[in-house]
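WARN no homologs supplied; continuing
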Amino acid sequence: MIMKFKDIYVVVPAFNEQKVIKDIIENLLKNFLNVIVVNDGSSDKTLEMIKDLNIKILTHEINLGVGAAVQTGFDYVASIPNARAVITFDADGQHNVDDAVAMAKEILICEEGIIFGTRFPKHSKNIPKLKRIVLKLIAKITELVTGVNLSDAHNGLKAFKVNAINELELQFSSYSYESELITQVAKKKIDYKEMPTDIKYTSYSIKKGQKLLNGLLIIEDLLKLWK
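OK structure emitted
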């Protein structure tokens, strides 16, 4: 029997994902009762593709960035009395729903407030070589700066207990929110763990995802945030 996780909400930030968004949401709905899409100012047919699905849609009138979309999702879930946890799930087709299900099961029983998805070491062979090197470098610098020991510091698939998101206040709107999240985990001493997650790299998801050069900006953000 498929668990529907009635107390868990999946937050999907989406910006111009008309090519893949419907399939992704339909696959999530097979396992999750509560799916929230934050339509982050899309100018294509993203909204049209999902408007008839049994989901909650939150909309930014203009594109504010993935960090702002995640925070909008957090704020909405925090207002729901019986919510216990949140899963964040990218809208570009990279993540595996089975990994989200495994995280959902674990976040309900573990002591940690946050579960970070990691591509290392189980799925590292699926990562392009240069990207693998950059990700390892970012993770190492993240640990040196913040003390937060993660093998994969920038993976969009995560699970949060609601009491953990109530401690977070993400101000950064773009992918910089990942660095902001980690610094808040360190400063607020939020317990965390990692779980293996696979990522499917396609020409579409690579085009939509972070560029390798952004790794330098991530490091700069960490140094600024840690002052």
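The mean pLDDT is 88.
OK
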